[in-house]
Each structure stands twice: as C-alpha cells, then as structure tokens.
Amino acid sequence: MLKQNLSDIKGFLEHKRLAMIGVSRNKKHFSRNLMAGMIKAGYDIIPVNHYGDELDGQQSVTKISKIDPPIDSVIIMLKKELALNALRDCNRAGVKNAWIYGMRGSADVDQKAIDFCEQHAINLVAGYCPYMFMEKSGLPHRIHGLIWKVIGLYPVKN
After folding, report:
1. 153: phi > 0 → left, psi -120 to 50 → alpha, else beta; which?
2. Burial class for 39, CB neighbours closer than 10 Å (0-12, 13-18, 19+)
3. Which one, 21, 97, 99, 120, has least CB within 10 Å?
4. What whole-number distance in Å separates Cα of residue 61 and Cα of residue 17?
5. Which residues pair with 119 in a beta bridge?
6. Domain 6-151 has CATH 3.40.50.2000
7. Does the model's pTM come out above 0.85?
8. Contact 75, 20 (CB under 8 A)
9. Per-residue model confidence (pLDDT) at position 11
10. Where are the domains of the chain?
11. C-beta neighbour count of 57 within 10 angstroms
12. Rounded Cα distance, 21 and 119, in Å
C-alpha cells in the first residue's frame, strides 16, 4: 500500500496541461464534471477515450500517444482493473506523472499499477479525487478532505 505525500499531490497539480484518460461520453458521469472543473480552474485538459469524440468543447484523442505535443502528466479515470494497461500506454508515451482517480486512497488502485509506476519512475498519486486538493473546489469536496483528515486517510505532509 502506498502512503501518499501531500507534496506529491501539490506537485502534480502544478502541471497545468494534462491528459485525462477515461472521460465518459455520458454528460452526467463524474469524469465529465471533473474535466469541466479542472478546465474552469485553468487546466488545459486533453480528454482520451476510445471514440475520439468532442467532449464539452474539448476534442478527445483515442490514445495518449496521439497527443501532440506530448504531455508528461495524466489523470486516469478508469476502473481499477484497466489502469495498468493505461499506465503501460502512458509509459510508452513518456508520461512521468500519473494520478489514478479514486475515493479511498491507494485501496482503489491495483498494487500491480503501483509497482509498475515504481519500476518505471512514474510519479504516482494513487486513489484520490483531485477536487479534494484544488484551491477553489466546492464545499462538498472540502468536507470530503476534512473527513479524511479526521479518520487518518488524508495524505501526510513531508
């Protein structure tokens, strides 16, 4: 199990140009909400999905390797069992920073994905919601972070 450092999370969020793998075509899916929220916060988000659709005014690509110029940071919004294959694609594309979305910390991330990142020098944020750490996120996200602090699941300061 990976113990996340708050400085790793803050460092990841300093990257303003990110790919987001697994953005749904369903407008009500949380991935669409997160993408819109990050764009509103000033991030340049390149959605990646199998269909290459335009999503909320953002043209998606079908593979991370098709992003030009290449990116070095990605948020993965896929099921736990699909994240490792996405990380393999990211590694081939030169990605050095990955955030695997989750709600329960590293418990939401396959240990094989964590090991892969360690073996390939990919900086990993494992199993958190970016909203919890974004400066201008809404009240529910701040409450989520507060609850995590109270129960001891919030990332440690280093």
Report:
1. alpha
2. middle
3. 120
4. 15
5. none
6. no
7. yes
8. yes
9. 93
10. 6-151
11. 7
12. 21
Closest-CA residue to 133 (of 19, 34, 31): 34
Distance CA 37, CA 31 (A): 10
Q: From 150, 153, 109, 105, select the one nearest 128 (Cα to Cα).
A: 105
Structure tokens given for 1 = 């199990």
* Inter-residue long-range contacts of 105-112, CB under 8 Å, 24+ positions, other chains counted: 105/4, 105/153, 106/1, 106/2, 106/3, 106/4, 107/1, 108/80, 109/2, 109/80, 109/83, 110/80, 110/81, 110/83, 110/84, 111/1, 112/84
Using one digit for the tens of pLDDT, what is the confidence trace for 44-96? 999 999 877 777 788 889 999 999 999 999 999 999 899 999 999 999 999 99
Percent of the chain with pLDDT over 70: 97
Inter-residue long-range contacts of 155-158, CB under 8 Å, 24+ positions, other chains counted = 155/4, 155/5, 155/6, 155/8, 155/9, 155/128, 156/3, 156/4, 156/5, 156/6, 157/5, 157/6, 157/7, 158/5, 158/6, 158/7
